[in-house]
Every structure is written in C-alpha cells, then in structure tokens.
Amino acid sequence: MDVTAPPSLPLRLARAVTEVLSPAVVVPLLSFAVAWYGTNHDPVGTVGWGLLVTVFYCAIPMAIVIRGARGGRWEGHWVRERERRLVPFLLILVSTLVGLVVMLVGSAPRDVLALAWSMVATLLACLVITRWWKVSVHATVAGGAVATIVLLYGPWYLLLVPALALVCWSRVVVEDHTVAQVLVGAVLGPVVGGVVFLALR
Questions:
Q1: Mean pLDDT, to the nearest integer, of 71-95?
Q2: Would you give the distance in Å from CA 181 to the centre of its chain?
Q3: In whole angstroms, how far apart are CA 160 and each of 165, 169, 192?
Q4: Cα distance between residue 154 and residue 166, in whole Å
C-alpha cells in the first residue's frame, strides 16, 4: 500500500512556477518583445525574428535537453546534476552560435543581435561557473529578461521583479538549488546579459 504523502501546496505551486516561468517560456516571450521593439513594431519582422531567436535559443536547446533526459544521460529536463550539465550546455552553445550567424547574415535588427550576443555571453558565464558550482539557469534567464525589458521599455517594467523573486523561490522549494545559487543567478543575468545587451544595442 502506497503511504507516500501528497506534495504540499507550496511544493505544488513551486513546481508549477518552475515550468510556467522556465527559460522555455521566458526566452520566446523575451525574443518577441525585443523583436517588436527592434523592428519598430513591424508585425512581420517581429514574428520572423522572434521565431528565429526562439528556434535557436529555445526550441533546439530544449529538444537537446529533453532527448538527453529521455535517453538517461541526465536527470530531468532541467538537468539536475551539475556534473552532467557540461555536454548539454556545449550543445546549446553550438545552437546559439549557429543562430547568431544566421542573424548576422540576415542583417537582423540591432536590438535582436544585441539580445543574441547577450544570451551567448550569459550561457558562457553559466558554463564556466557550472564547472565548479550549480548556478540557477532559471534565475539567470529570468534576471536577464527583466533587465533587458527594463532597458528597452523603461523603469515601469521593474514591476516584473516580483516574478523573478517567484522564480528564485520556486527553485529553492523544489530543492533544485540553494538560496545562494538562485541569488547569484538573479544577479548574473542582469550583470552579464543586461550589460552586454546595453553595450551592443
């Protein structure tokens, strides 16, 4: 007889937040938001460039991670083991660099290119840190996204900071990260991604 207690309400909420505000959701939303701004609100350009960024910076990376998880190469679609993150991170880096080349050849808008470069730089920073420590990619992506949106659309979008805090909380509650790991991620995104984006746009 199974006597395992059902997960608590905070844990269920944290699991939901982990998925709803995951990089797989945040990156496409950010891509279209930046494309909308970078194309001067051109619907066709927004869809085209937004989809391009989404494919190389989200869809292909998620396919890599999910395939690896199903093949037993690592645990879960968020790669819980730090030691096994190197290979998926490197494969994801290849995808992002290919996408960047396509955007350069296709003369993508300056803001879209700045976003691409900023995400490559952030991924490299995570890759280096992950050799020794498990920084939260969820928090890093969310922090970088908030910083990018604020830089483009203005300080009112600092109202997104509670969503970043919610992401950090969720990663700790599901026991995938420590408080330190999510805090470093939340700072790493703006400091690396935000600064590179601001410098190149």
A1: 84
A2: 15
A3: 9, 15, 19
A4: 21
Q: Which residues of 51-86 are buried (b: 16+ CB within 10 A; e: fewer)?
A: ebbbbbbbbbbbebbeebbeeeebeebbbbeeeebe
Q: How far apart are the first and last CA of the chain?
A: 60
User: Are residues 133 and 179 in contact, defined by beta-carbon separation less than 8 angstroms?
Assistant: no
3-state per-residue secondary structure call for the chain: CCCCCCCCHHHHHHHHHHHHCCHHHHHHHHHHHHHHHHCCCCHHHHHHHHHHHHHHHHHHHHHHHHHHHHCCCCCCCCCCCHHHCHHHHHHHHHHHHHHHHHHHHCCCCHHHHHHHHHHHHHHHHHHHHHCCCCCCHHHHHHHHHHHHHHHHHCHHHHHHHHHHHHHHHHHHHCCCCCHHHHHHHHHHHHHHHHHHHHHHC
Distance CA 165, CA 170 (A): 9
Single-letter amino acid, residue 27:
V
Would you state the structure tokens that stand for residue 19, as one six-digit string? Answer: 């998925």
pLDDT in tens, 117-144: 999 999 999 999 998 999 999 999 999 9
